[in-house]
UniProtKB/TrEMBL annotation, chain A:
Gene3D superfamilies: Transmembrane di-heme cytochromes, Chain C (1.20.950.20). One of its GO terms (biological process) is nitrate assimilation. It comes from Actinoplanes utahensis. This is Nitrate reductase-like protein NarX. The chain crosses the membrane at residues 6-23, 44-69, 89-108, 128-152, 172-196. Its cofactor is heme b; Mo-bis(molybdopterin guanine dinucleotide).
Automatic annotation (TrEMBL), chain B:
It is found in: Cell envelope. GO terms for biological process: anaerobic respiration; nitrate metabolic process. Residues 7-35, 173-204, 206-235 form the 4Fe-4S ferredoxin-type domain. The gene is narY. Keywords: 4Fe-4S, Electron transport, Iron, Iron-sulfur, Metal-binding, Repeat, Transport. This is Nitrate reductase. Its cofactor is [3Fe-4S] cluster; [4Fe-4S] cluster. GO terms for molecular function: 4 iron, 4 sulfur cluster binding; electron transfer activity; metal ion binding; nitrate reductase activity. Residues 517-551 are annotated as: Disordered. GO terms for cellular component: cell envelope; membrane; nitrate reductase complex. It comes from Actinoplanes utahensis.
Length: 240, 551
């Protein structure tokens, strides 16, 4: 069971994430969009959307720092475990609450604004459930460990385990002693990764960083391809 | 000098009767799909009026176009790259659906299925966004022909720039119609605002298009365009805009709005311009200089040096020749009667307008003067400062001198031709009074009043050896993802996802053949669905009529 949960399952979901994204990009460039609903409703979106997105970006940075940077590195630059923990809990809680409130606003808006609700697909609804679950479980794990308990140093267990996945030497044993709340959060997060390429969340992968460096006006020559665009299955890749 | 060619348009507002044929045929051709019900690539506004979307010209509010920075450069008024990135999660300056109008239909079925009763059944309006009952409060053209009266007109952003007295006088005076399409600017602010780089200007003919595969729905282009001519398809989540009917242009046909214009007021032709000079002239200090500045950017195709540079830049010979014969060149540069719409937005728009003279003449006639006597007309153009101010607010950033000069020329042409028409001796003093020769004024009269089809549209086909290839490109146009119900399958990721099924677009050559053919061109067509739009009235397609009783 341990091997399945902490070795096979994560790899499976990552394969689905990468494979699914590549497949979606080839198969469905036209569907690759934020599908913004701002045209229908602006007032709530103006508060909810930046709150959620900036919050979630902060959460992402927190995860990268906490999971991918080994504890020995932060200690080598003189950051004690206690100081690190305090910063992480404080910033993490602010970011988490931002995300949570933003998401609550957005979900309420989606349900209560007629045109927005009418434009919500089943896929969107499922995505919201998984996404909200991951965020709430993560917050719950943090709050439980720090308020009910005396804090949990996931950088001794979860982080090395995750890194062990990336170097292809998975070490499931590291996860056995982790509190259940963290375990559930991790499992839910990997489920979200597997679901990711098949939802509108793909727009996160097209964050337009190139905009910062390109000239304002884009010129393009007519497409040199000849003939009608053939009907291609997704696995054959983009036409040349 | 870097020579580029631009397909450009001029509209003669004197002839626009506000029939909206251009809007309707454009809608039929491009935006009769779900998600773009509220979208009109071509719309005809009454002036004075609010426009579509409402008050779009108020750039303090909507932040479209460019502004000159302190260092003399240009940046989008809504903010540069960094600011755009930070406001990407909720664009603060995007018009909402209510600023356009909420699209609706009627519950016609109820008329047929309502049970018999005392009351006559009615077809209730239903919102196309929610499917629920709705109240129709605005549409694309609610204030057509001054509809709504003064309360509505007060909000006209251009009218607010002119003084109160002028405003009230003006409202009594006249209205005119302003047909608008995308300006296909030389310095497009929509393209500059697009974070994904999906909006591009075609290097060959300057048409500005949205790559539907690259658009990610960040919505910045809607804000960036000061004319609000980029629209957000709320079903597919992609931006869409006027395409200058490029599949037609590529085979030498005019856009559908031009082709169907009953007033024959649209002119299409090429302009050569110096691409290196665009940003320099677009950033001149005084907005009133922008009209002249844009004329500086254009290159004279009759100049051998320009032609040589154009050849060097890979512009084919027949295109250079077409640029020499371009009616747009004549109207802008030779006769100097066409003016750009809102040059102060600094986008260098390429759909220009000949301001209307008719209302001046009408007002004059009503006061008992001879409406077409030259002296009276010149006086009227000057005395009736009212339209001049307003027209200047639209076309020259408030500078009345160029507008007066245009109206004088139009008045002179009218007066000169009137004498000829009445069998009097042509008076060469008239053209001289506006700095033209008799030959020029005759040629301008031919172009504006006779307006032969081949004089109005000088469109070189996309280059001959490329014709086959380009036709194919036209058939796989970026807007080909048909949005109509049943036109595409709904994929698993929301509406219109999945690889688009190649739509069987008839090529325009085929369509042309059909239009002139004597018989039903496709005898095997019977079992298929009837496409009413393509049915040319010949033959009896299966399913179109009830079966004949005598067979």
């Amino acid at each position: 069971m341990n091997t399945f949960l902490w070795v096979i399952y994560p790899y499976l979901t990552l394969v689905v994430l990468i494979g699914g994204t590549v497949w979606r990009y080839r198969y469905d460039k036209f569907g690759w969009t934020t599908r913004s609903s701002q045209l229908y409703e602006t007032t709530i979106l103006r508060w909810g959307s930046p709150m959620f997105h900036f919050g979630v970006l902060m959460v992402l940075i927190g995860h990268i720092v906490g999971l991918l940077i080994p504890k020995t590195w932060t200690e080598a630059v003189g950051l004690t475990e206690h100081a690190y923990h305090l910063t992480a809990v404080f910033v993490g809680t602010v970011a988490g609450l931002c995300t949570l409130i933003g998401m609550a606003l957005l979900i309420a808006r989606r349900r209560l604004t007629g045109p927005v609700f009418a434009a919500t697909t089943k896929n969107d609804k499922a995505m919201y459930v998984v996404l909200a679950a991951v965020i709430i479980l993560g917050l719950w794990a943090t709050v439980r460990a720090n308020i009910a308990g005396s804090g949990y140093d996931y950088r001794e267990t979860v982080s090395p385990w995750l890194r062990s996945l990336f170097v292809l030497q998975p070490d499931a044993a590291l996860m056995t002693a982790v509190p259940a709340s963290f375990k559930i959060h991790v499992i839910a997060a990997f489920a979200l990764f597997a679901f990711w390429p098949f939802t509108r969340l793909v727009h996160a992968f097209s964050a337009p960083v190139g905009y910062l460096t390109r000239p304002y006006v884009v010129y393009r020559y007519r497409d040199p391809r000849g003939g009608l665009r053939p009907h291609r299955p997704g696995w054959e890749g983009p036409a040349r | 000098m870097r020579v580029m060619a631009q397909t450009a348009m001029v509209m003669n507002l004197d002839k626009c009767i506000g029939c909206h044929t251009c809007s309707v045929t454009c809608k039929q051709a491009w935006t009769n799909r779900s998600g773009v019900e509220y979208v009109w690539f071509n719309n005809v506004e009454s002036r004075p009026g609010l426009g579509y979307p409402r008050t779009y010209q108020d750039q303090e509010k909507w932040q479209g176009g460019w502004v000159r920075t302190r260092t003399g450069g240009l940046k989008p008024r809504s903010g540069g790259r960094i600011k755009k990135m930070f406001s990407i999660f909720a664009n603060p300056k995007m018009p909402s659906m209510q600023d356009y109008y909420e699209p609706w239909t009627y519950d016609y079925e109820h008329l047929l299925t309502a049970p018999a009763g005392e009351d006559l059944p009615v077809a209730r309006p239903k919102s196309l966004l929610t499917g629920r009952d709705t109240k129709v409060t605005w549409s694309a053209n609610w204030d057509d022909s001054l509809g709504g009266g003064n309360e509505v007109l007060q909000a006209d952003p251009i009218l607010q720039q002119v003084s109160d007295q002028v405003r009230q006088e003006y409202e009594k005076a006249f209205l005119f119609f302003l047909p608008r399409i995308c300006e296909h600017c030389l310095n497009p602010a929509c393209a500059a605002s697009c974070p994904s780089g999906a909006i591009y200007k075609r290097a060959e003919d300057g048409i500005v298009l949205v790559d539907q595969d690259r658009c990610r729905g960040w919505r910045m282009c809607v804000t960036g365009c000061p004319y609000k001519k980029v629209y957000f398809n709320h079903r597919t989540g992609k931006a869409e805009k006027c395409t200058f009917c490029f599949p037609r242009i590529e085979i030498g046909q005019p856009t559908i709005c031009s082709e169907t214009c009953v007033g024959r007021l649209r002119y299409i032709g090429l302009m050569l311009y110096d691409a290196d000079a665009v940003s320099l002239y677009a950033s001149v200090d005084d907005p009133k200089d922008l009209y002249q500045a844009q004329r500086e950017v254009f290159l004279d195709p009759h100049d051998p040096a320009v032609a040589a540079e154009a050849r060097k830049a890979g512009i084919p010979e027949d295109w250079i020749d077409a640029a020499r014969r371009s009616p747009v060149w004549d109207l802008i540069m030779k006769y100097e009667v066409a003016l750009p719409l809102h040059p102060e937005y600094r986008t260098m728009p390429m759909v220009w307008y000949i301001p209307p003279l008719s209302p001046v003449v009408d007002v004059l006639r009503d006061t008992g003067h001879d409406g077409e006597e030259l002296g009276n007309l010149f006086g009227a153009v000057d005395a009736l400062r009212i339209p001049l101010d307003y027209l200047a607010g639209l076309f020259t950033a408030g500078d009345t001198a160029p507008v007066r000069s245009v109206l004088n020329r139009l008045a002179a042409m009218r007066s000169y031709q009137r004498r000829i028409n009445l069998g009097e001796k042509p008076d060469d003093a008239i053209p001289a009074a506006v700095g033209m020769t008799a030959d020029e004024i005759n040629a301008m009269y031919r172009l504006l009043a006779i307006a032969k089809y081949e004089d109005r549209y000088v469109i070189p086909a996309a280059h001959a050896e490329d014709a086959h290839r380009l036709e194919a490109v036209g058939a796989e146009c970026s807007l080909e993802y048909e949005g109509g119900p049943g036109m595409y399958q709904t994929g698993p990721f929301g509406e219109a996802s999945g690889t688009p099924v190649p739509v069987q677009v008839e090529t325009f050559h085929m369509l042309r053949e059909r239009q002139t053919a004597d018989e039903f061109t496709d005898p095997g067509d019977e079992p298929r669905r009837v496409n009413l739009l393509n049915w040319d009235g010949k033959g009896r397609p299966e399913g179109l009529f009830p079966p004949r009783s005598d067979t």
